[in-house]
Write a structure and sequence with these properties.
Layout: E1 2-7, H1 10-17, E2 23-29, E3 32-44, E4 47-53, H2 63-69, E5 75-84, E6 94-103, E7 111-114, H3 117-126, E8 129-137, H4 144-150, E9 156-158, H5 161-171, E10 174-183, H6 205-214, H7 219-248
Parallel strand pairs: 1-4, 1-5, 5-10, 6-8, 8-9
Antiparallel strand pairs: 2-3, 3-4, 5-9, 6-7, 6-10
């Protein structure tokens, strides 16, 4: 069985990477290192694990993902960190939502996909907290009031999972979402991360420093948020380690779905 796990950025993957001998592959664009896209691969028992990165927010299938998708994964896990939209989810919770909604603007979310129910139930049985729905937005929700306003639609929020599940369905892979909570519903983020993203959809350190220069009082909260995020990523790594082993025990007949858009 082949499993593809996608994260937004490598920092979310770092704790799990340290637990296994993942082999890093640099994919060069046009033969030049400037266009390199990194992916990671390893094998656990009879399961091949491929790890790729979407960047923060979905901007299409990049070179690394295209390479991994050419291997035709049986399972696609959209993973990483997420924000809570309700008090029912606490910092560090590992969550498995049943469905994902997309909101691209001010209008109510209309697009909705369900994840693979068997994989989601297996995640809950493995110790993930069950949630009905995750909301994927096109921007980081930085204020508690913004998060509260979306709480009627979903229990948690990210910027990638809707598109990952849609792509998984299109490719015939069984899709599931596993996310760890890095910020609570009543918590303002320390800075507006929407202003810190680079063209490659990564957090730009120079842009973070610029924001801190304008508001140095945000530094303690940024340090606290960093600690919360690392702790959540560590909880996620421990869960994924157990979860992948549970998937490996599924019958060999459990495989790819028929392609559905």
């Amino acid at each position: 069985m082949r499993i593809l796990i996608t994260f937004a950025v490598e920092a979310e993957f770092a704790p799990w990477r340290r637990m296994h001998e993942f082999r890093k592959e640099e994919l060069l664009s046009g033969g030049h290192a400037q266009g390199a896209s990194a992916v990671y691969r390893t094998q656990v028992g009879n399961v091949y694990l491929d790890v790729g990165f979407t960047g923060i927010g979905w901007s299409g299938v990049n070179q690394g993902l295209d390479h991994l998708l050419s291997k035709k994964p049986d399972v696609w896990i959209s993973s990483g960190l997420a924000g809570a939209l309700r008090d029912s989810l606490q910092l560090g919770d590992v969550v498995a939502p049943l469905a994902v909604l997309s909101r691209t603007g001010a209008e109510p979310p209309t697009n909705r996909f369900e994840v693979d129910k068997e994989l989601r139930q297996l995640a809950v049985n493995t110790g993930a907290k069950a949630a009905e729905c995750l909301l994927t937005t096109c921007r980081v929700l930085t204020l508690a009031v913004e998060k509260r306003a979306q709480g009627s639609a979903a229990e948690l929020v990210d910027m990638e999972s809707f598109d990952a599940i849609r792509e998984a369905r299109k490719r015939g892979s069984r899709g599931v979402i596993i996310r760890a909570i890095s910020d609570s519903a009543d918590e303002d983020l320390p800075i507006d991360f929407n202003d810190t993203l680079s063209r490659s959809r990564q957090v730009s350190l120079p842009r973070v420093l610029l924001r801190l220069a304008k508001n140095p009082l945000a530094m303690p909260r940024l340090i606290r948020f960093g600690k919360q995020s690392r702790k959540a990523a560590q909880s996620l790594a421990l869960f994924l380690d157990s979860y992948v082993l549970q998937i490996a025990q599924l019958p060999s007949s459990y495989g790819r779905e028929k392609v559905a858009v």
